[in-house]
What does this fold into?
Amino acid sequence: MKKHNFYAGPSILPQYTIDKSIEGIREFAGSGLSILEISHRSKEFVGCMNDTVKLFKELLDIPSGYQVLFLGGGASMQFCMVPMNLMEKKAAYLNTGEWASKALKEAKLFGEVVEVASSKDKLFNYIPKNYEIPADADYFHITSNNTIYGTEIRKDLDVKVPMVADMSSDIFSRPVDVSKYAIIYGGAQKNLAPAGLAFAVVKEDVLGKVTRPLPSMLDYRVHIKGESMFNTPPVFAVFAAQQTLNWIKSIGGVKVVEKKNIEKAAVLYDEIDRNKLFRPTVIDPGDRSIMNICWVMADNYKELEKPFSDFAKSKGMLGIEGHRSVGGFRASTYNALPIESVDALVAAMKEFEAKN
Ligand SMILES: *Cc1c(COP(=O)(O)O)cnc(C)c1O
It folds into this structure.
């Protein structure tokens, strides 16, 4: 049976990325060696790294003055790297979920953190608006897509202090005005590559302003100087990222990806709104994520949660259970997910409704 991959992360990658990765494991770039066994200093891999950076800049339309880094440690390491490198006294954080809370907690190790607003009062099912950012904050941190709760900030905010965004789960899902950000970072395993890799898009002139000494591995300037090769980068994951970026380019770029994402999300939200058995958790359409779509059983059908979960599984739906902290259901509709998978899920929801 065809499997439909709705896992939240690690998650679906383009078939192109999988196929090219298999080829690269057999033989990489005509080197006669596998990508798994070649030096990161070899001319073949240096070429791969340079091309991956170039594609990343091209597809996100990154202006000059920014560097693209590929680092180990996942998004979670960026939670401490960002404040270490940017916070002298004070930073402002918008608390929109579990990842945002974790980022905020790490920042507190390095200075005063102002939580400008939080949606915790309603289990993070909306994006707070109308908050004030202290003018003397060294930066303002947002989590643009809240993977666990299914909310998303889909426009690039205008703020008066440098803005930092965790875009782990929505990178390349839409065009981004990079000029509005000081740093954009994320783990690669949602929309780009296998786990073990983080990306960071860093505006160079925001660096070098803190007085604390920085360990080399946690200093963006060291990685910029080393062109992401200060130490051994996650070689295979960078190679896979290059394939995903090639795939995005081949289908027409980020605007095309966004259009498909909006279509997929609309199909699924429409069904959740319509189907008597289900209820969406995020009500305001403007706050709804197009990457992670969350719903629960309607009040009168709570006892059907497990039966629906089993039914969906029997139809090939994988990974639709909600995060362990919230329950219910979550379908991740990342860039690589074909609309056919959404259609199949919707068909299963309709069939289950008809049976009950
Ligand atoms: C998955 C995720 C993370 C954590 O990423 P790791 O690479 O596991 O550290 C952080 N932020 C967001 C928004 C995520 O979706």
User: Anything to note?
Assistant: The chain is about 35% helix and 15% strand.
